[in-house]
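Continuing the series of single-chain predictions for the mutant panel. This is the parent chain; the variants come on the following pages.
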Amino acid sequence: MQSTQVTNYIVMALAFTSGFIIMCVELLGGRILSPYFGSSIYVWGSVITIFMLALSIGYLLGGRWSLNHPSLARFSTFFLVAAVALIPTILWGDPIMDQIFLHVEDPRYGSLIASAVIFFAPTVILGMVSPYSVRLLVENRDHSGHVAGRLYFVSTAGSALGTLATSFYLVLWFEVNTILITAALVLIGCGGVAQLRHRMMRTGPVDSGSNTATRTEEESSP
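Parent structure:
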């Protein structure tokens, strides 16, 4: 298998994992907020709104950052930073929720503020993965639409699986914090895989027909 094919498969797998974790965390959001604000349509509306807004900003930032010498090394930082951004939810989720609940009586705005404080940052970062992945995979402009479609198919498939796995099984088998800790560890692992692949491509032979992902690894290294 050619080096560029391996790189492409890794990028696709990481995009799939990102989609999985996004939906996993979103569904857990409703479980985290429900003891304080209930599980009404207001709460789910708040969670969905914050996630959609955060993803839209992440798409914008990821697309912009992909213009400046994209590389797997930088790609890996998205996963590592997203894992770090989940730490406040894991360690201080309950105290944060207590303070918001005490100061905001209306469950509509309380759940909206709580969702923004807890989930906005990690979701923005994970939203950057898909557009950056497209830039790493594109060989030329003629194929950009096909690559983008395939990438978003993989990412959305990961989201669908994450939705089913979390709602049907994970929340029944594990506590919320256990799932979040596992998600953070998986993100760290994804960042490690991308960083390892970056180092292997710098030290190993490069195919003459390499694509953008390969070329940009040579052009830029942090």
